[in-house]
Amino acid sequence: MSSTTPRARRIERAAGIAAIAGLLLTGAGAAAAAEIADETGGEPKAAASAQTPAPAPTATCKAQRPVPGFNRWQENWGALADPCLPRKPLDALKYIPLSGDPSWYLSLGANLRERFEFNDAPLFGLGSGRADGYVIQRAQVHADARFGEHVQAFVQLEDARPFGKDSVSPVDKNPLDLEQAFVAYVGQLGAGTVKARIGRQEMAFDLQRFIAVRDGPNVRQAFDALWGDYEIGQWRFIGYLTRPVQYRDLDSFDDTSNRHLKFSGLRVERSSFGPGDLSAYWSRYERDGARFIDAAGNERRDVFDMRYAGKRAPFDWDVEAMGQTGHVGAASIGAWAFGMLGGYTFASLPGAPRLGLQVDGASGDSHPGNGHVGTFNPLFPNGYYFTLAGYTGYSNLIHVKPSLTFKLSPKLTLMTALGFQWRETAADAVYGQGMAVVPGTAGHGSRWTGMYAQLRADWLVSDNVALALEAVHFNVGDSLRALGARNADYVGVEAKFGW
Q1: Domain residue spans of the chain
Q2: Residue 25: Cβ within 10 Å count
Q3: pLDDT (tens digit, 9 = 90+) per residue, 235-282?
Q4: Cα(239)–Cα(267) distance, rounded to whole angstroms?
Q5: Do 419 and 433 form a contact (C-beta atoms < 8 A)?
Q6: Residue range 6-498, CATH number
Q7: What three-state secondary structure class fits 390?
Q8: CB distance 109 to 142 below 8 Å
Q9: What values do phi and psi take at 23, rounded to 5?
C-alpha cells in the first residue's frame, strides 16, 4: 500500500495525467515530422536547409533501415553502414563504428511507455480492491554492441514507476535496474546454425500465454539464463536453464536471481508443417514454499506443451495445449490448460473485417483435501492475455470470446469483443493475476463468473510512436454478487515511443 497522503496522491495523479497528455501531443508532433521526413527522403522540411542533403537512395540499394521492435536486441543497425540509406536525426548514435570492419559497431536505443488506467473495482470490489486512477511509466535504455557477425553484447536498463496508484504491487514498481545483460554467439555448425546466450535475458514462447516477457504490466519479466539453440532446415532445437529474476522495489540495482525458483527445459520447433508451424516443449518448474488452497510445500511441476499455428487465407488459427504433473509437498499434481484463437478475414470488404473466436480453459481443484492438486499454474503469463483490465487469470477457467476486428487504415485497428467466463469447477476459487484468489469464491456458488465487453483501438502513428485505447466493462455473475462483488469498469490510454 502507498504511504503517501490522499492529497499527495492527487497531485501525483494530476502530474502523471499531464505527463501522458504531453507525450500524446509529442507523439502527434513526431508523427507529423516522420511523415514529412518520409516525403523528403529522411529529414523534416523545416530542418532541410540547415542539413547537408543525404545521398538519395539508388535503384540498387538493398539495405533496409531497421525499425524499433518488440525485442530490441534483434535489431540490426549495421544496415546504416551502407551510405545508400538516407540518414535521420541521431543516426550517429544508432550506428557507432568500433573498427574499420562495418560489422563492428555500437548502437544505442530507448523505449518509453506511459499508460493512464482507471479501474473502479479491482478483484470486483472484494477484499482491499477499491476504485483507483493512476499512471504507470516504464522507461528503458539499451546499448547493443556487435563484434563482427558472431558475437553480440546487449545491456538494457529499466525504470518502472506508478504515479498516484493506491495499491502498488510487485509488477508496478521497480526503480532503475538491470533488465537485460547478456552475451550472444551465432555461428555455423555443420549444415546448421548454432546460437547461444548467457546472462540476464527475456524469453517468450508463442503467443505468450504461459511463457512471456510480461509486457502488459509495468515491470517486465527477465531470467538469469543459459540459452542455446540449433537451427537446421525447417527444424529448431532449444535448451534453456534459468532462474527468474526476483524484482525488488526498495532501491536501484537491487534485483537478483530468485534462489527459490528454477525453470529449465527443452523445446523443438518445425516450420512449414502443412499450412502452419508446430512446436512442443518440456519444462521443469521448481518453486520452493508454494501455497495453494489445500496444499503447501515445495512445488515441482513437469510441464508438457504442444502448439500448432498457421494461416491459410481467409482462415488463421493458433491452438495450444499444456499438461502438468508433479507434486506440491506431499500432494500430487494433475493439471491442464488449452487455448485456441481462430479467425476468418473478409479481405474484400471495406476495413477487411476479421471475425474471431477465442476459447481458453484451465483446470481447477475439483476435490480439495484429497491429496491431489488440480489447479493449473500459468507459470510466467503475459498478465493481460484476456484484456488490459486483468480481472481474471489463467487458472480454473473456461473462457469464450467472439470478436470483430476492423482495419480502418493501414495503421489503425479497431477491435470489439464479448467475453464469457465460467470456473472449470466451483470447488476451486476464481483467480486473478498472479494466481491471486478472489476472496470467498472457493467452494461457493455456481461456475458462472460473468461476462465482459471490450473495445480496443490501436494506432501505429509512425515507426517510433504507437497509441492505444482500451475500455472494458465486466458484469459479474450472481454467485460473485452474493459475496459482495460488483460490476467493474476499466479504461486504459497508452502511448509508446521507441528509438
Answers
A1: 6-498
A2: 11
A3: 999 999 999 999 998 899 999 999 999 999 999 999 999 999 999 999
A4: 6
A5: no
A6: 2.40.160.100
A7: coil
A8: yes
A9: -65, -40
